[in-house]
Amino acid sequence: GSIRNIINAMHKFEVTISLTIVFHTMIRIKGTVTENKRHYFYCSI
Questions:
Q1: Rounded Cα gap, residues 2 and 11, in angstroms
Q2: Which of 27, 7, 5 has its CA nearest to residue 15?
Q3: What are the pLDDT digits (tens) for 11-37?
Q4: Full domain range(s) for residue 34
């Protein structure tokens, strides 16, 4: 039973890390896209 608890805890920990990485990656991509749009906008003027 204790081993299963440890495995469950590790699994939750991994899921949390995965979600955090995905969240930060999405923010970074969104920021990059925003910068690119701004760059193209200024270049097109």
A1: 14
A2: 7
A3: 999 999 999 999 999 999 998 988 888
A4: 1-45
